[in-house]
Amino acid sequence: MDVVDRIRGYFYEGEPIGPVPWSLLDQSNWSSFQSQVYWAIGQIPHGETRTYGWVAGRLGNAAASRAVGQALKKNPFPILIPCHRVLSTNSLGGFMGTADPTQVEVQLKKRLMMLEEEYKSPVFSFLTPARSWVSYGRALGSQ
Fold first, then answer.
1. Among 98, 111, 115, 141, which residue has the least CB neighbours within 10 Å?
2. For the domain bounded by 3-19+30-141, which CATH number is listed?
3. What was the pLDDT predicted at 80?
4. Which of 37, 41, 72, 83 is catalytic?
């Protein structure tokens, strides 16, 4: 299955995209620190979250939480490299350069997290009726 099909399955059904396709991503403009941060968040399982401090700790510098946030702000592939799974200890944190919960970027982060949270394994698909992205978006809009 190619990356486009994996992304399509993610948005339509909430299916895990799978491992980050590192070999397909242009990493030439990344600093060493950015590469380490992106690799660490690529290890966060679908539907789970971690904190900026957790990421910093994985890199061996628990005091680097803000630096982690700055690296994530520059993430050029925010769906494939799942920076939406990284939270502040007391809030959702930011996404794509903004932390304002009224902004579209943070609203997208919430939707991505909800999509992953609601994903049901195909083995148990009889428990949750299939949904399309359109009906999912409508359900979110009605909240």
1. 141
2. 1.10.10.10
3. 95
4. 83
